[in-house]
Amino acid sequence: MKEYKWPYENEIGDVQTDKAEVLVLGGGLAGCFAAIAAAKKGKSVILVEKGATVRSGSAGTGFDHWESACTNPCSQVTPEEIAEAYVDEQSHYSNGIAHYIECREGYDRLLDIERFGGKIRDTDGEFAGAEFRDEKTKLMFAYDYKNKFTLRVWGSTFKPALYKQLQLLGVKIFDRTEATALLTAVEDGKKRGIGACGMNVRTGKFHVFKAKATVLCMSRPARVWLFNPDLVGLCEFRPMQSIGSGHAMGARIGMEFTMMEKSVKGEFSAAGRSFPPYGAGNNHNTWYAATMVDARGVEIPYLDRDGNILETVSQRYYPVEGQKFFLKGGVIDEPKYEYRGPETMPFDQLMERGYQLPFYADLSKMPEMERKVIWGMMVGEEGKTKIPILQNYTERGFDPAKHALQSYGTGWQSAAFLTQERQLFGAPGGIMHDWDLKTNIDGIYAAGDQLFASDCCGYACATGHYAGRKAADYAGTVDYIAPVQADIDAEMTRLYKPLEKEDGMGWRELNMAISKAMQNYCGGVKCAELLKEGLDLLTSYEQEKVPQLCAVTPHDLMRTHEVLDILEVCKLILGACLMRESSSAPLCFERSDFPALDPEKDRHFITIRMENGKPVKGIIPHDYFGNLKEEYEKRNQDYIGGAH
Predict the structure, then answer these.
(1) What does the buried/exposed string (b/e) look like for 32-44 if buried means 16 or more CB atoms within 10 Å of the residue's CB?
(2) What is the pLDDT of residue 4?
(3) CB 258 within 8 A of CB 36
(4) Could you give the angle at the alpha carbon of 247 between the alpha carbons of 233 and 545, nearest 5°?
(5) Are 256 and 429 in contact (CB under 8 A)?
(6) With contact defined as beta carbons under 8 Å apart, do 72 and 53 qualify?
(7) How far is CA 471 from CA 34, 38, 87, in A?
């Protein structure tokens, strides 16, 4: 191995084997709750996390709202109403099972976090008297002040509280350890998950984890279409290491995925043209419902569902007569139940009406409490905003009571992106599963961003807890199976291969090449010829470029493994795109060779899994999950009975 200065012990080639009844891969919100739920059922639990669990994952730096607290004492809606609205809003390309779990159990998980030490209410009275605060419970609400099912929370307090609870429950945590491969065996003619392999990203030690049940709680894919080797970090909404390794691991063992053909036009990315998330004035999500003005300071009015101008700031947060509720924030990009705010008005209409660029978010024109909760809580608690945005802007003189913040891009985005620059954002594809959140492989469950049509933090926590307890129940019915040594040896060889190269290609070069290939052959408009050519190009990378990869430190090696996973995910995406032979508005999917838009014959989930190196297509009806409330209650009487 090459000589290098590295502050950690060199354990490359060393092997450590550990065993637990339930293995959780990923230590974000979903993974923490999966481990907690399994441990509370009396199972031994190992949690494997690439970063440091105390602050890892997409929510590690915080988040500002909890979307579906439908059972909180102030809520005016039922879990059924909101879950069904999610499904309807996404034109049934939605995860009814996971959304219902989120809506039914989401507030329970918030109360758990509060017991663990997280902050979910205004206990200090900072916002006493505010329209969005309930004086009795001290809960604070966002978006819909009438129905009160979305809470403003202090999300930066959540991960440390969950980490402390994991330690109290005796969960064995392997931080700075990347999971790299799932181990399987055949039992009674069926494939079963029996653990995983991994590598310490500081020392290079190889790990073997044996388990009766495994829960995948890793991230959705990223750095697929958009990657700039010189500009990574703050321009990326999720952490740099969150790139979809769980998807790649699942694909390699024949796991079934759906909606992998869906991708949206770039929003937040490391493309080099975006601004740090929520660091530009807008009126989306964290900034909802900021007053927007044009270059002259002329206010752009908000409209209600019926097109009427809203005269006051308060009116922006209430349904109109005949409107039960509206959805705003998170995954809901084009809600059918929202107020028609200025962001929904076509850009050309704004120009026709005489509004002049640039636009600004002007919080000085809002009531004090509304201004204070946007700039200081929402901006501050939302991921990566506390220091880069709130602290840095404030130190440089920005005062929301006096100043307006410019909104960049041609419309309401933080930057203008090209059509071919896509992202797996807004309820993207992921693992197909049943009502137990079990994959098509026995013993392997999934939660959070691993699931198809994944959503927000409440979704991650609720599905994580649910998958953890289902995995624990399964683990009580089976024995351990010893992994095949040849599988372990093959994974060790694959992982360490880049260390053998004295001089070769770095991971950044291959990541950029993959992203360019996806832009060129799987961009905004697709066709069979382009998609096949893209697959051929990626195959050539696999055969010709991957053997040239070179790494020096375990950290470099980890980044190299990530790019190999990105390559695996890209092949999955291209295969899924070839399978859908029509265009689809809900899936943001356009094929020039199949322009028919959402034909009845194609209104279903298309699944893809790899078998002997070939993609296998499946078809599943949109309503495969049945009646949400009935099917949930059929399977969760122990939970309903109070066994939380």
Answers:
(1) bbbbbbbbbbebb
(2) 57
(3) no
(4) 70
(5) no
(6) no
(7) 9, 7, 26
Q: How far apart are the C-alpha atoms of 123 and 107, rounded to whole Å? A: 18
| Rounded (to 5) percent helix, strand, coil in the chain | 35, 20, 50
Closest CA to 165 of 64, 59, 38, 26: 38
φ/ψ of residue 627, rounded to 5: -70, 120
Cβ(194)–Cβ(210) below 8 Å: yes
pLDDT of 209 above 90: yes
Q: Whole-model pTM above 0.85?
A: yes
pLDDT, average across residues 253-257: 98
Residue burial 111-128, b: 16+ Cβ < 10 Å; e: rest: ebbbebebbbbbeeeebe
List, for residues 587-630, the tens digit of each pLDDT value.
999 999 999 999 999 999 999 999 998 999 999 999 999 999 99
Structure letter (DSSP) for residue 176: T
Residue 503 corresponds to which amino acid?
D
Dist. CA 490–CA 498, nearest whole Å: 14
Report the distance separating Cα 171 and Cα 163, nearest Å: 10
Residues 492, 206 contacting (CB under 8 angstroms): yes
Distance CA 278, CA 290 (A): 12
